[in-house]
Amino acid sequence: MAELIIWSGWQGGIGVGLVVVAMFWLTGKALGASSAYGEACGVLGQTFYRSGSFAGPKWRLFFAAGIVGGGLIAAWTSTGTWALSWDMGTLYSSVLPASPTLRALVLTSGGVMIGFGARAAGGCQSGHAITGMALLNPPSILAGGLFFVGGIVAVQSLFAWVG
Amino acid sequence: MSKTSTTSVTTVAFFPLGLLFGFVLSRAGATTYDYYAGLFLFSDLQLLWVIAAGAATGAVGIALLKKVQAKTLLSGEAIEFAGKPYKRDLIPGALLLGMGWGLAGACPGTLLAMLGEGKGNGLFTLFGVMLGTWLYGVMRANTQNSSQGVVAPD
Description:
The complex is a heterodimer. Chain A is 67% helix and 0% strand. Chain A is mainly alpha-helical. In chain A, helix 6 (125-134) packs across helix 7 (138-161). The longest helix of chain A has 24 residues, at 138-161. Chain A starts with 8 loop residues before the first helix and ends with a helix. By secondary structure, chain B is mainly α. The longest helix of chain B has 25 residues, at 122-146. At the A-B interface, helix 1, helix 2, helix 3, helix 4 and helix 5 of A face helix 1, helix 2, helix 3, helix 4 and helix 5 of B.
């Protein structure tokens, strides 16, 4: 596993913010990530995700593939070599089940909540919390705050219950 | 240039933008599990600064683009800075997404970069996100069939 290079929070945030601006300037689209999963479901046969904003070119899938590639480049340009890793860091490893099957079940459940919740909320941390707050959009500011409430409740409960 | 080729160039342009986004998410620490737990335990606020500085930088850049009435570089059209509208399921949806965020230590964007870095556990989360997205589509499609109104996905 590559030892990732990590910038300070504000430097990383400026980098993320610049990509939001670049996206608007180049393409006119608001940066978001979760709708790419809807587009993928549409391609795989879930016709709900083929109408409305999902009709037309599959640009979200190109963006999503780019994000995977960006992670790959980030690992390549860090110290050490790229390798598949099953490590989840000190904190999650201390509370999540050690059994690979149970851990996979927890992560899949978390994923279901992420996927269902993002579509119900109409966006995720990228589209609501970062792009939406940059637009000073009230529904997005509300959503961003509620993401934190949900995260705090889940992780505090996990550590209180297990840790 | 024909309309079709313009569209395809524009579509492909999202790939390098994604590369940039994935790269900075990784450098920002947004693909590192410990920062997620640290954020919600209030023991390490790295990701809070990322979100705050990201939104602030975005706000400044958007204000500048609005001031010069910038056109999109790829299509030359005026940029619409429309925010997402409020919707009925926003509050429960955002809370559910937040809980999944904390439980899985990933969000929809960072999950993709984590997979690129080789974080194998992200595959389970990916399966879950696809399943959850699919289920929402099934639920909404059923709601549409049982009512008169046609609701577009968002």
